[in-house]
Amino acid sequence: MLIFYLVLLFLVPVETSLSQEIQTDKLTDASSASGKFWFYSHDQEDLIYGPFKYKNEFFYEISFWFDLYATYQSSTIIIHDSEDLRIIYDVFSADALYKNDLNRFTKDALSKDLLNMRLQQMRDEFSALSIGKHDGPVAHKILKTLKAHRIKIPSNRTKARKFFTSLGENLRYQIGQRDSVITAISKLGPYLSTIDFLLTIFKLPLDLRTISILESSFYSDAISRVGAAGVWQIIDSVGEKFLVVNKYEDQRRNPIISALAAFRILSENFRITKSWDFTLLAYNSGISHILNFKKSSPLDIKKYLTTYTHDSFGFASRNYLFEFYSLNYALAYKKYLFPEVMALSGAIDGNFSIYVSLCPFDLVKDKPFSFLAAYNTQFFGSTIQRGSSVISKSPLPASRFYKLNETDLLTNYPNKFINLIQGQSCSTR
Hints:
Blueprint: H1 2-19, H2 21-30, H3 33-41, H4 59-70, E1 76-81, E2 88-93, H5 95-98, H6 104-130, H7 137-148, H8 157-169, E3 171-175, H9 178-188, H10 192-201, H11 210-216, H12 236-242, H13 255-273, H14 276-285, H15 287-296, H16 301-307, H17 315-332, H18 334-337, H19 341-344, E4 353-357, E5 361-362, E6 383-384, E7 389-392, E8 401-403, H20 406-411
Antiparallel strand pairs: 1-2, 1-3, 4-7, 4-8, 5-6
C-alpha cells in the first residue's frame, strides 16, 4: 500500500516537476532569497543591532537560511549543495501527502521514502554526469542550475568526473521552518519582556533573544543528540556549573532561570573574543575551537568559517552564524513576514520575577501555589524543596518566598540562589 501511494502521489509529480522546469523555477524565484532577503537586509526600520547587520561576503549564505525561516513551510524540502548554498537543485512540497486521509505515521513514512527516492535519483544523475551522460530531465536541471550560478564544468574528462562526484557527495536536504518559527514566536511571547529585561541588566544586545528560537524553537523539553537541554540548549557540563541539574529538577528546562546561565556564557565568550560573531559561534560549538584557531591566526570571521577544520565542527557549526543572522532579521520584521503571528503570540504583559522558596510545598496539593506549575517546568515531580527557585508573574508572599533583586541575579549563579536564604525562616501563617 505504501508503494502504491508513493507512485500515485509522488512519482508522477516528481517527473512532472523535473520535466516542467518552469514550474519549479517559479517556486524558487517567487521566494528567492536574493530578492526577499535583499529587501529586508536594508533594515529600513533600523531594528537590527549594529554588529548583527548582515555582511556582504555572506549574503548568499544568510539568504539561504532566511528563505528557510521566512518562506518555506515544514512540508517543503530543499535539495542543495552543502558547500555552496547558492546551488539549490530542487524545491518540492509534500502538501499533497499531508492533506490526504492517511494516518500521521504513514504520512511520515511516505514523506521519508519520497525524500530518499529524490536524493537517490539525483545521486544517480551525478554518477551519470561524471561519466559524460547528460540525458534526462534531472541531468538537464542540474546543468541548468550550475549554469545559472556560472559554475564552470571542467572540460577535462578526469576533472569533470571528480567535479560531478564531489557535487554528488555534497548533496544535502533541508526542511522549511516557517511554521516552526511562527509557533516558536508564540511560545516566546509570555517570556519575552522578562528575557529582554535580563539581557538589559546583563548589558547584552536584545537581538540575542533570537538564540532561544534558533537553538530549540523555544521548546523547553528540547534535548539535542549531545545532551544539550532546554530553550537555550545548555550542555550538561555547563549546566552543572551554573544551574541545579539533578534527579529532582533540571533548571535548563526553565526558560527564564536557564537564561541567566546562557547570558553568563555569552558575556564570558564576548570578554574572551571581543567579537559578537565569535561569541555566537562559541555559544554553539564551544570556545575551544576559537582558541585553537587563534593560536595560529588572528580572529578573522571569514577565514575561520572557510579554513578551520575539526571533526566536531561540521555543517551545522559552520552555518550557525548565518542561521542566527537570517533568523534575527526574520524575527525583527515578523509583522511583515509572519502576519499571522499576532493571533498566535502569547500574552507578553508583565515580567516574571524569580523567587527562592523558604518553605517546602507541593504544586498539586498546595492549591494557592498550583498555578506555578504552568511555567516552572524544571521540576520532575510536584514536591518542591526549600531553597528551590521558581518564577512567577504574580507576587508571592514574602513569608514563604524570597524575591531576588537585580544584584542577586548579577552576582549569583542560579545553583547558588539557595545561599541567599541562609538564616531566613519559613512562615506558613
